[in-house]
Design goal:
Blueprint (H helix, E strand, L loop, with lengths): L9 E5 L4 H13 L3 E5 L9 H7 L1 H4 L3 E4 L11 H20 L4 E7 L23 H20 L3 E6 L1 E3 L8 H10 L4 E3 L6 E2 L1 E3 H13 L4 E4 L6 E2 H12 L5 E3 L27 H14 L5
Parallel strand pairs: 1-2, 1-3, 3-4, 4-5, 5-10, 6-9, 7-12
Antiparallel strand pairs: 8-11
């Protein structure tokens, strides 16, 4: 439970209709010790400078702000989407300078490290070399928000996320696609040969870490990773076991991208009691969720 003496009265989640933002609103509201407000389109367009300046100040001042809003890579990885993502951060930064939040938590991505020719394992000190527009926008947003928070003396936590999965996923993330197609008995067409290593993060683990960051509060830049990468083939076999029947998989050759393997996240030193959900447990819970909601399959 959150401590009343350190938890802000207000928490504002920007991007509250997305998979991560929506999950955060539900999780933080369930704690019952803070008032959670979620903002998203059409109520607020973060790319509209005038609307942001007029509407946002009364919500950010003295609140813990979680910046989850973004055009995600699976939806649009174009130069235009990159520009819109950067504009969102720029507009938010201008408001924060004039109306300081109590705390800012920015959800970034491990895509800032790029996907090719990586020196593994990755850590928070690894070289920044994004290889797609999404990664470029995310690291640019980090710099913009760091400057704004430094100018306004706002505590900042940058959380770099790998692939996030779990119930209520609104994106075509790999694990949701794997599970829903497996449940529907459809053939899975998978880029790669199954040996590619990835570190996936269960949504409830992310929500609890954000709650911890607000509770303490915690500042700094952290990879929110389990530190245990799994091959795509092993993940598919686990889903097959959970389904209780064989699944048809068609692989399409080895991916050019590097494997993603991480060192232990440095945030664990600040939340020593926290334990990540195992991939087996997370997949089983996700599969059960989608099995109960056939309309999503």
């Amino acid at each position: 439970m959150m401590d009343d003496s350190t938890t802000p009265e207000n928490v504002l989640v920007l991007g509250s209709k997305g998979f991560i933002g929506g999950s955060l609103v539900r999780h933080l509201s369930g704690c019952g010790e803070c008032v959670v407000r979620g903002l998203d389109l059409p109520e607020l367009d973060l790319t509209d400078e005038q609307q942001v300046r007029l509407f946002l100040p009364r919500w950010v001042k003295d609140a813990a702000v979680v910046m989850a809003a973004a055009i995600t890579r699976d939806r649009d990885d174009s130069a235009a989407a990159m520009a819109r993502n950067i504009q969102m951060a720029s507009n938010l930064a201008q408001v924060l300078k004039e109306h300081p939040a109590r705390q800012l938590i920015y959800l970034s991505t491990v895509d800032v490290y790029g996907r090719r020719n990586l020196r593994l394992p990755l850590s928070e000190s690894s070289a920044i070399q994004p290889s797609n527009f999404y990664g470029i926008s995310k690291i640019t947003r980090e710099y913009i928000l760091r400057l704004a928070c430094a100018d306004a003396a706002i505590p900042l936590a940058v959380l770099r996320l790998p692939g996030v999965y779990g119930p209520n996923d609104t994106h075509n993330s790999p694990i949701r696609v794997f599970i829903t197609k497996a449940l529907a008995g459809q053939t899975l067409k998978v880029k790669g040969n199954g040996s590619e290593l990835r570190d996936f993060l269960y949504i409830e683990d992310l929500c609890e870490i954000v709650a911890c960051v607000i509770r303490e509060p915690i500042c700094g830049t952290f990879n929110i990773v389990t530190g245990r990468s799994h091959s795509i083939g092993d993940i598919l076999r686990t889903i097959e076991e959970c389904c209780g029947h064989p699944i048809d998989v068609s692989f399409e050759g080895r991916q050019e991208d590097s494997d993603l393997v991480f060192e232990r996240s440095t945030i664990l030193a600040q939340v020593p009691a926290f334990r990540f959900t195992s991939i087996e447990a997370g997949l089983a819970q996700s599969l059960e969720h989608y099995r109960r909601q056939p309309c999503l399959v």
